[in-house]
């Protein structure tokens, strides 16, 4: 596969041009220090951080997008099928598959790994046609992180920082406002070749430059290696830690909503207003922190206590799904849940506490 | 990513035609459906049944394996969708996806005595296994059904149970919690009661349980008291389910996905799952 070198301005211009031709998504400022992974339009504000971002007085570069890029592959309220009913009471049902081509650009390693994990989930067993038809028509232009995005980041602790799989093009910041562009797949190769960027002929040196610049240690780290964290979470069923953090939780479900590896959903039907013989079934995001998540007919709730629901959320990320898929942690360390929680409940702290509690045991 | 083959209709039902619809009790309505193609299901599996515009819910397959393209369901009126289903008549349409879940492996029951314990609506899924077992006495051992419900008015599949009772090698014990001053020719009590005095060839017996969550603990205790090991007990679990394909997350029990690995489990496989019988 080939490598190219271009200025950040040239790359942004290229993305803008692609955005004129089709659907391109890129992190865009939303308020003070927030980003939204939004469609690139004519006057969209697009930027990559400096190679030097992360100096002493400004240790972080920029926050992650509030909603992870991967959510573009399973949008909230997506239509699953349309239906109509004729005068004889016969139904016609048509599944909705979104096969439009799109590009997700500026995807960070943590979110790239999350997309890989969602690829696994949606291909597992009986595959999810709606996710996969979108995913298989999506190109990903990922971007390396040389500095942690903010004080919540712990991507290196969850083995996400060096993630490459799933990216078609991989961008690495370089001095003098340049970007190293590596094609990782055929699709990436086609994209870059068509753009006519100048080739890069000192790739090893370029990679080394970036590696040298990368913050060390990078972001937060657990008090033990990841496997020990996974073991501690896996082996903690009854633990006072489950009550400690949940004490201040509102069960609002924001932590589910912003997590790049939360994928639980609900389905609901509705009729079209004005034509009650037609309508659709849509899928919306759901969250295991919400009270009614495990309620069945008759009203029985299989997880009535908030602590049981939090334990479930944490165990899904750091025990259940890692065991099921054998692909490491399902928490990619993006820091969103801790960042967005009104009362600062952070999976990072919970994991460390479980680790401490496990080690304290005789 | 490497392209993956998928079925575009995975979350879109096929429309079946209702051949027969009748109220079995004030709460439960029985449906026999004509499917566009044979379902080829195993006992213990379920379908996602729906009315477009109203909603979709997991419903157990209530008939044994069959070669034709018909399907039988028993639906309790508990909410918005099931209430609307209760208004459906022969000739109307119902959406069906599936079959889903692992179900029972019939070969595992060959040559074994089987005790079925059904609480209330639990008889609906169990019927999918009872039918093949009592229908083939050469292949299976003695079949015992202990079926309990609240009052005689709540009893399901009454005529069928009486017909099964006449088959060779078959015992049917019908119970109510309370006769509610209605005529009743069965026993009064809980489904746990008959287990204590049941004639049982323990090493050669398998037990299959389906009912409300509260029932399991007590039935399992009663069976354990008779020395039946947990590897010889099967349990049909209920969880909230939205998709049936292991994606929506609602049915997860610890690390297990109930709609895929279940809803039928060997009890010995559940003992390591603290959330299973909560
Ligand atoms: C594997 C399995 C097999 C089942 N088999 C049968 C059967 O053979 N016959 C039968 O009558 N019922 C069966 N059920 C239960 C049936 O799915 C629920 O009664 C149905 O979902 C209620 O839907 P509703 O729209 O009428 O009620 P709603 O108006 O949606 O809700 C009524 C209550 O049911 C809960 N609920 C909502 N969705 C679900 C869901 N998907 N699963 C469980 N509870 C839910 C709600 O939280 C609420 O408490 C089965 C459930 C499972 C999981
Ligand atoms: S975001 Fe915070 S308060 Fe809301 S459910 Fe999650 S942990 Fe609880
Ligand atoms: S659990 Fe929290 S930190 Fe981990 S991936 Fe989800 S949102 Fe990010």
Structure notes:
With 362 residues, chain A is α/β, with parallel strands linked by helices. Chain A has one domain. Chain A is built from 11 helices and 11 strands. Chain A starts with a strand and ends with a helix. The model of chain A has no long low-confidence stretch (mean pLDDT 93). Chain B is an alpha/beta fold and 278 residues long. In chain B, the strands form 3 sheets. Chain B has a 7-stranded mixed beta sheet with strand order 10-9-8-7-11-12-15, with helices on both faces. Chain B is globular. The model of chain B has no long low-confidence stretch (mean pLDDT 94). Classes of the chains: A alpha/beta (362), B alpha/beta (278). At the A-B interface, strand 4, strand 5, helix 2, helix 3 and strand 10 of A face strand 4 and strand 13 of B. Flavin-adenine dinucleotide sits between chains B (46, 55, 57-60, 74-76, 78-82, 121, 124-125, 238-242, 263) and A (292, 295-297, 299).
Topology:
The complex is a heterodimer of chains A (362) and B (278).
Chain A: E1 3-7, H1 8-21, E2 23-29, E3 35-39, E4 78-85, E5 91-95, E6 102-107, H2 109-123, H3 129-135, E7 138-143, E8 169-174, E9 178-183, H4 186-195, H5 203-213, H6 226-234, H7 241-244, H8 254-258, E10 265-272, E11 275-285, H9 306-325, H10 336-340, H11 347-360
Parallel strand pairs in A: 2-6, 6-7, 7-8
Antiparallel strand pairs in A: 1-9, 2-3, 4-5, 4-11, 8-9, 10-11
Helix pairs in contact in A: 6-9, 6-11
Chain B: E1 14-23, E2 28-34, E3 46-51, E4 55-60, E5 70-76, H1 80-85, E6 93-100, E7 113-119, H2 123-134, E8 143-149, H3 158-165, E9 170-176, E10 187-188, H4 193-197, E11 205-210, H5 213-225, E12 233-236, E13 252-253, E14 256-257, H6 258-261, E15 264-266, H7 267-270
Parallel strand pairs in B: 7-8, 7-11, 8-9, 9-10, 11-12
Antiparallel strand pairs in B: 1-2, 1-6, 2-5, 3-4, 3-6, 12-15, 13-14
Bound molecules: flavin-adenine dinucleotide and iron/sulfur cluster (2 copies).
């Amino acid at each position: 596969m080939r490598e190219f070198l271009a200025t950040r301005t040239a790359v942004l211009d290229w993305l803008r041009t692609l955005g004129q031709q089709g659907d391109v998504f890129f992190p865009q400022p939303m308020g003070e220090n927030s980003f939204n992974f939004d469609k690139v339009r004519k006057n969209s504000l697009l930027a990559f951080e400096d190679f030097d971002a992360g100096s002493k007085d400004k240790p972080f570069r920029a926050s992650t997008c509030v909603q992870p890029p991967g959510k573009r592959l399973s949008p909230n309220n997506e239509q699953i099928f349309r239906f109509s009913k004729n005068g004889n009471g016969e139904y016609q049902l048509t599944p909705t598959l979104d096969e439009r081509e799109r590009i997700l650009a500026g995807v960070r390693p943590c979110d790239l790994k999350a997309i890989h994990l969602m690829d696994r989930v949606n291909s597992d067993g009986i595959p999810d046609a709606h996710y996969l038809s979108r995913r298989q028509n999506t190109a990903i232009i990922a971007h390396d992180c040389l500095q942690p995005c903010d004080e919540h980041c712990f991507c290196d602790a969850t083995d996400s920082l060096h993630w490459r799989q799933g990216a078609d093009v991989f961008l690495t910041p370089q001095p003098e406002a340049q970007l190293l562009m590596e094609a990782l797949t055929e699709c990436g190769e086609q994209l870059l070749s068509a753009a006519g960027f100048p080739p890069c002929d000192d790739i090893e040196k370029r990679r080394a430059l970036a590696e040298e610049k990368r913050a060390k240690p990078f972001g937060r780290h657990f008090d033990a290696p990841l496997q020990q964290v996974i073991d501690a979470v896996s082996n903690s069923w009854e633990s006072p830690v489950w009550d400690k953090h949940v004490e201040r939780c509102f069960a609002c479900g924001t932590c589910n909503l912003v997590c790049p590896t939360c994928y639980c959903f609900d389905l609901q039907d509705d009729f079209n207003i004005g034509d009650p013989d037609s309508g659709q079934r849509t899928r919306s995001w759901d969250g295991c922190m919400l009270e009614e998540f495990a309620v069945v007919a008759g009203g029985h709730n299989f997880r009535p206590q908030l602590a049981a629901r939090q334990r479930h959320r944490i165990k899904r990320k750091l025990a259940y799904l890692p065991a099921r898929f054998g692909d490491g942690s399902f928490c990619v360390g993006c820091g969103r849940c801790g960042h967005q929680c009104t009362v600062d409940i952070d999976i990072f702290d919970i994991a460390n506490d479980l680790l401490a509690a496990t080690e304290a045991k005789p | 990513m490497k392209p993956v083959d998928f079925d575009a209709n995975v979350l879109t039902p096929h429309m079946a035609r209702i051949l027969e619809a009748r109220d079995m009790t004030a709460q439960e309505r029985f449906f026999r459906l004509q499917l566009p193609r044979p379902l080829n299901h195993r006992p213990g599996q379920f379908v996602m049944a729906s009315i477009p515009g109203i909603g979709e819910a997991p419903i157990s397959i209530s008939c044994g394996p069959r070669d034709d393209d018909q399907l039988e369901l028993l639906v309790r009126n508990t909410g918005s969708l099931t209430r609307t289903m209760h208004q459906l008549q022969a000739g109307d349409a119902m959406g069906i996806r599936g079959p889903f879940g692992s179900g029972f492996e019939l070969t595992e029951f060959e040559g074994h005595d089987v005790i079925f314990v059904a609480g209330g609506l639990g008889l609906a899924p169990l019927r999918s296994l009872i039918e093949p077992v009592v229908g083939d006495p050469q292949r299976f051992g003695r079949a015992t059904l202990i079926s309990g419900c609240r009052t005689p008015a709540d009893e399901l599949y009454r005529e069928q149970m009486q017909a099964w009772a006449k088959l060779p090698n078959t015992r049917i014990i019908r119970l109510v919690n309370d006769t509610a001053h209605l005529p009743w020719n069965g026993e009064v009590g809980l489904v746990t009661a008959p287990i204590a005095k049941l004639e049982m060839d323990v090493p050669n017996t398998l037990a299959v349980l389906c009912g409300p969550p509260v029932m399991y603990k007590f039935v399992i205790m009663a069976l354990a008291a008779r020395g039946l090991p947990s590897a010889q007990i099967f349990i049909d679990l209920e969880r909230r389910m939205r998709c049936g394909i292991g994606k929506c997350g609602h049915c997860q029990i610890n690390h297990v996905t109930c709609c895929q690995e279940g809803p039928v489990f060997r009890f010995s496989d559940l003992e390591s799952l603290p959330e299973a019988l909560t």
